[in-house]
Amino acid sequence: MADAFPLTLEESAERARSLVQQRFPAAHAAYLGGSVVRGTATATSDLDVTVVLDGPPAPYRESLLDGDVPVELFVQTQESLRHFREQDQQRRQPSTARLVCESVVLLGDELAEALRAECAGEVAAGPEPLSQKEIDGQRYALTDLLDDLVGAVDPAERAVLGALVWERSARLLLGLERHWQGSGKGLLRELRAYGSGSPATEGTGASRGDALAARLSDLPGRADRTDDLVEVSGQVLDRCGGRLFAGYRLGGSSG
């Protein structure tokens, strides 16, 4: 069994607060977010600390050790916070907003709570809908990978292709459902969050978005369930027009 994170939430907040007070005495707001606050921290986790300043030296990001505890510092201004949240919206991963709204407020004035509420509203609203161009591009890419997976005979190739098909299917499904996405384990967690409460079963409910998410969540690490992955991925494609190959065209740039 993996070791636990060495600090309690209260100890983590005190450690982070002390660090902020020492290094940023003029900070308008500071937050402790991430896995420590969510309760998912492990022995290798770090403290995710967001600090809001008026201006320089912000914005920057720094990784450091506070004693023996790793810390990720995200030093921002209000303008840079807005900029990175807009970037996160485009990639459908609200990392910056969540570090602020799903947090312990370490210090701050009224601005601290105002930013927290603004970020919470943004996360609750979800990402923008996929455009038809985005949908078609993802349909084409997933169709191509599925064809490769079905035709693959080398076990190593099948394992690699299966992982790619799973990721593409998860991203397409969450995009269609206007649910946030993530990277690595974060994508699996988002899929589980969307699929929670839905039985991963066959039958009439299997084409529902939440039930498909539940079934996809159950597949990572199961090389023996390639057929299930192909079936579920096909059902994801069916939600937006099915497989796409013939007739797909993507314009290029001459510059």
Description:
- The protein has 255 residues and is α+β, with helices and mostly antiparallel strands.
- 51% of the residues lie in helices and 12% in strands.
- It contains 10 helices and 5 strands, in the order αβαβββααβαααααα.
- The chain has helices at residues 9-23, 35-38, 78-91, 95-101, 110-125, 132-151, 155-176, 185-195, 209-217, 226-238; strands at 29-33, 47-52, 60-66, 69-76, 104-108.
- It has a 5-stranded mixed β-sheet, sandwiched between helices.
- A hairpin with a 2-residue loop joins strand 3 and strand 4.
- Mean pLDDT is 92; it is low at 198-206.
Write the layout of secondary structure elements.
Elements: H1 9-23, E1 29-33, H2 35-38, E2 47-52, E3 60-66, E4 69-76, H3 78-91, H4 95-101, E5 104-108, H5 110-125, H6 132-151, H7 155-176, H8 185-195, H9 209-217, H10 226-238
Parallel strand pairs: 2-4
Antiparallel strand pairs: 1-2, 1-5, 3-4
Helix pairs in contact: 4-5, 6-7, 7-8, 7-9, 7-10, 8-9, 9-10
What's this, in brief?
The protein is 51% helix and 12% strand. By secondary structure, the protein is α+β, with helices and mostly antiparallel strands. Strand 3 and strand 4 (69-76) form a beta hairpin.
